[in-house]
Each structure stands twice: as C-alpha cells, then as structure tokens.
Amino acid sequence: MKLVLLGGPGAGKGTQAVVLREHFGIVHISTGEVLREARSAGTELGKKAAGYMDAGKLLPDDIILGIVRDKLAMPEMDRGFLFDGFPRTIPQAEGLEKMLDELGKSLDAVISIEVPDDLVITRLLRRAEIEGRPDDNRETIENRLKVYYEQTAPLKTFYEKRGLLKSVDGTGTVDDVFVRVKAVLGQ
Ligand code: ADP
Fold first, then answer.
1. How far does residue 170's CA lie from ligand 1's centre (Å)?
2. What is Dmax (Cα atoms) for the chain?
3. What phi, psi does 100 have (nearest 5°)?
4. In the Cβ-directed half-sphere of 57, how many Cα atoms lie within 13 Å?
5. Which residues are catalytic?
6. DSSP letter string over 99-158?
7. Measuring from atom 5 of ligand 1, which residue has the nearest CA?
8. Relative to the CA of 13, which ligand 1 atom is closest?
9. Contact call for residues 4 and 22 (beta carbons, < 8 A)
10. Measured distance CA(8)–CA(114) in Å, rounded
C-alpha cells in the first residue's frame, strides 16, 4: 500500500499514520518528524529548519524533496509507505510523482482528513500543553492554517484529477477516523 495523508495542522494525520503503519505494516514517513529529529540532533538541516518551523512557514521545496528522495531509496520502502505532512505544495507533489515514476511506482490513494478550524485550534492548543511543541502556540497555529489553505489545500484538486483523492471526516475518536479511512480504502 502506497499512501499520502493530507490534512491541515491538527487534522490528526500523525495519529492516523501510526495506526495505518501498524495495520498495513508499511513505512511511515513524517517530514515534520524528520525535521524535529534534525533539530534535536543539532544538524545543519535542523538549524536551517528551526526558523521556518517556529514561524509556521514551509521549508523550501528542494530541501524537502531531498529528504524524500533519500527516504524513497531505502530498501524497506518496498513494503509500502505512507507519507504524512508531505507533499504540502504543488511542486512537492510534482516532485514526488516524478521520483515515483522513475522508480516505476505509483500511489494507491491520497487520504484527506477533514476537520473544522475551530476544532483544530482546540486540539493544537491542548497538544501544546501536553507535548510542548514550540510551534503549537496560537500565532503559529493561525499561520500554519493559513499556509495550509494557500499552499496545501490545492493538492486536493491535483489528486482528484488523478483519481486518487479520498476525503475522510476527521472528527470523533481515533478509531472512528480509522474505520472511515479503512472504508475508503476498501478494507
Ligand atoms: P503539522 O501538520 O502539525 O503542521 P508537521 O510535523 O507536519 O506538523 O510539520 C511541522 C513543520 O515542519 C511545518 O510547519 C513546516 O515548517 C515543516 N514541514 C514539515 N513538512 C514539510 C513539508 N512537506 N514542506 C515544507 N515544510 C514542512
């Protein structure tokens, strides 16, 4: 199974990704997680990412595509994979399509998890208290939402045109959402 999970901040992509990874036994790749790890390891990538992340801005597409290229080269990707938080712009989606083409692979589905903004803000402010992620403050959250609508939401049309888009209601419990995701995947 080769999947992309789309959704705004706080849509619950990361949570569903973990459940889907276990269910299908596939590799889960979160570009946000790769960047957070690079930050805590203090690498050059991490230092560069920090400013963008704390402002709720996207990193340049070439940096993200470089990370994804390395991940796609890993042998375990043959088990299937799930991208969470990538692609986030049209150039990233085009870059992914090209890399997959070169590998003779293609996506099975793109799942868009839909959650209303007011619920997203409540969820992210709660996560800020629990996990203390530095980009979960009100100002950054609002910026991430704006960036999502401007740059990431257009990907729904991009994937709809390719017949890959499956929209899922992201409200309710983790299991409620998982049942809906499985249903759109015909499971
Ligand atoms: P969320 O979905 O809650 O915003 P992520 O963990 O996916 O969280 O991303 C956190 C931050 O990392 C983003 O706000 C952005 O700065 C950066 N980032 C992650 N993935 C990408 C990507 N595909 N393109 C550009 N920036 C990214």
1. 19
2. 44
3. -65, -40
4. 9
5. 13, 88, 127, 133, 144
6. HHHHHT---SEEEEEE--HHHHHHHHHHHHHHH--TT-SHHHHHHHHHHIIIIITHHHHH
7. 32
8. 2
9. no
10. 8
Q: Identify whether 134 is preceded by a cis peptide bond (ω within 30 of 0).
A: no
pLDDT at 136 over 90: no
Tell me how far apart the alpha carbons of residues 154 and 24 are, in angstroms, rounded to a whole number: 28
CA nearest 46: which of 55, 59, 27? 59
Mutate to test the pocket of ligand 1, among 33, 58, 62, 65 (most ligand atoms within 8 A of CB): 58
The tens digit of pLDDT for each residue in 22-67 reads 999 999 999 999 999 999 999 999 999 999 999 889 999 999 999 9
Q: How confident is the model at residue 110 (pLDDT cuts 50, 70, 90)?
A: very high
Q: Which pair of structure tokens corresponds to residue 166?
A: 């499956």
Pocket of ligand 1 (CB under 6 A): 9, 30-32, 35, 52-53, 56-59, 64, 85-86, 88, 92, 135, 144
**Å from CA of 31 to ligand 1 middle:** 7
49 CA to middle of ligand 1, Å?
Answer: 10
Closest residue by Cα to atom 4, ligand 1, is: 9
147/119 Cα distance (integer angstroms): 17
